Amino acid sequence: MGSLRFDGVRFTAYTMDHAPRHVHGFYAGIEVIVDLRRDGTVALARRSDAIRPGNGSKADVRHVLTLAARHFDKLVSLWEKHHG
To answer: Is 90 exceeded by the pLDDT of residue 84?
Structure first.
């Protein structure tokens, strides 16, 4: 497992995690699963539990996604460090 922290958000890539390439962002009591797309963009993962708990604020989710986009290359490096 590896983590990076930016502006209050801790991004984690789990060693035994699955494709597609993604990180877990933790902020303000929520967890947001962020896909790191091959085209250089980020997106909320397409799964029912992409925001935990499900009632996380839209502003907090947006903050996580914005920081993931801003630090995309670092987050991809974090994922690749643990998944090759």
So the answer is: no
pLDDT tens profile 17-38: 889 999 999 999 999 999 999 9
Look at the alpha carbons of 10, 16, 73, 37 in this order and tell me if their dihedral is positive or negative.
negative
Single pTM value for the model: 0.94
Joined tokens for residue 37: 């797309």
Asked if 26 contacts 10 with a C-beta cutoff of 8 angstroms, the reply is yes
DSSP output for 16-64 = T--SSPEEEEEETTEEEEEEE-TTS-EEE-SSTTSEESTT--HHHHHHH
CA atoms within 13 A on the CB side of 57: 6
